[in-house]
Amino acid sequence: MSPSLENNNRLHPLMVICELDLHVHDDGPKKFRKRQSLAKQNRDGMWNNPGTEVFAIISPNIPNSPSLCTEHRGAGCPVSLCRLILVHCREEMARQLTVVGATVIFGVAPMAETFKQVARLCPTIRNVILLGPPQEGTVSFQQMAQDSGDLFDENLRCKIIINEFEDVFLLPHSSGTSGFPKSVMLTHFNMSSNVMQFLQPGGTNHQIATTNYQDTYICLLPFFHNYGVTLLMNTGFETGAKLVTLPQFEVQSYLKAIDDHKPTAMHVVPPLATLLAQHPALKVESLSQMHTIFCGAAPMSVQTSVKLIERLNNPNLSLQEGYGLSETSPGVLMAPLGNTRLGSCGAPISRSKAKVINHEISDQALGPYQHGELYVSGPQVMKGYLNNPKATNEMIDEEGWLRTGDVAYYDDDGNFYIVDRLKELIKVKGLQVAPAELEDILTSHPAVAEAAVIGIPDAHAGELPRAYVVRKPGMESVSDAEIRAFVDSKVSSHKQIKGGIEFRSAIPKNTMGKILRRELRVEYAKFQESNELMDRIFSAVDSTAKKLSEL
């Protein structure tokens, strides 16, 4: 246990609450020591090679997840935080665990059968530990936790030697700038550096616990994502905050947690920011004690920022946007406190650097307002991709700069703006079109709730922008022609939506709110293949009919 965590634990023993089942997880110092003793048993008894094997936590947001993550970190065991994958995707889960070399699965009892099947598919898994009653073929967490905690003492702690610069703490997954998902090696130094960077003066407005004060966070962001690990779990433990966990997202449960616990800081993604700005059932007075809203994972629209500020009407509230990647632990850019540049994700955080590079000439740095690929560096940049030196070398250059795959620019004051993903840029007659720019215009139309834009092949132009639109309730009569005319009036000719508009009930997104444009491109390609096949069939039928008529 770190000194700050142990001290905060004495100040406020109640640190983690599970909201949905109202189970209070009392993390007092004695219980922390007991579970760290358990982690030590895992390391020395269940694992063959301490410090080299991986403890996979596959769980919804429950109090035990951050506790176990912290304890195994202290025991020198790498941790892989994996998303809960549906039962029919057990093969995908097994592939992910095989990549990281996971040896032990920790999960919840309702997923026991899935975990046992995954263990059979993943040859490295030797133990499945369940939070819940014992089941055949698994180990019960409760049974293991019966130890008195006497094994954990100062002498034992001294025997755990961790090289913070080399030893891996966390193994999240990322696609990087291209290719299949890879396992990111984040060291103890990477992760602790990022927490300290956020807590520097002028950084995030997280408050350190005192005898009379404790921050409260609503932990809806998944703990299998770096955003949740660093900004909620690790920062919360470092500052002594109370963490209210929500195992799943339900609007009413989320609003109830806000009303019950009166959070002092909120960590959101753009869809949650939109909910806070618009949902009629939100009791604004429940957020009166809040000093900070931090938004990350995807750019928040200026319209949402304005609505949120106007609705909460709190002069003491700081609205901060940040930017990061799994490969940077994750934070690297952040809007400073009091920032008025809406739409900007800020400047490099403490001990970090950023630059914009020309796409065509890799060594040419660009000046203000010029669009190019964002490169970043700092102590939070990953050690590399696990067992993938080729991908590591493609991602990090010889000077330690990490290429993000994101298109960005910065203004005269050094504030950065993310324009789009490099690989998602649309090229119309050689001219670049950023999908995010068109999506922002589309969502400013009064009838549009959500939108996504992709490039589709075109024989003449190379690519054309195509939009997928979700209309607001009651606006179903608004036509595609009306929306297209609205957008076309605001952009240059090459940016006009000449690939068509398709109305749909939802836009595909990942759990952090990022639009999955790749899914839309695959969907469109399959649609085109189907159309081409039908054209060939009808052509063959017409040809046969013509020949028969000539007989």
Describe the structure.
The chain is α/β, with parallel strands linked by helices. Among the domains are: 28-162, Rossmann fold; 425-528, GMP Synthetase, Chain A, domain 3 (2-Layer Sandwich), CATH 3.30.300. It is 33% helix and 24% strand. It has 16 helices and 27 strands. The strands form 7 sheets. A 5-stranded parallel sheet has the order 4-3-5-6-7, sandwiched between helices. Mean pLDDT is 81; it is low at 21-37, 42-48 and 149-154.
Task: Describe the structure using short key phrases.
single chain; 551 residues; alpha/beta; Rossmann fold; GMP Synthetase, Chain A, domain 3; five-stranded parallel β-sheet; five-stranded mixed β-sheet; 16 helices; 33% helix; 24% strand; globular
Q: Can you describe this structure in just a few lines?
A:
Helix content is 33%, strand content 24%. It contains 16 helices and 27 strands.
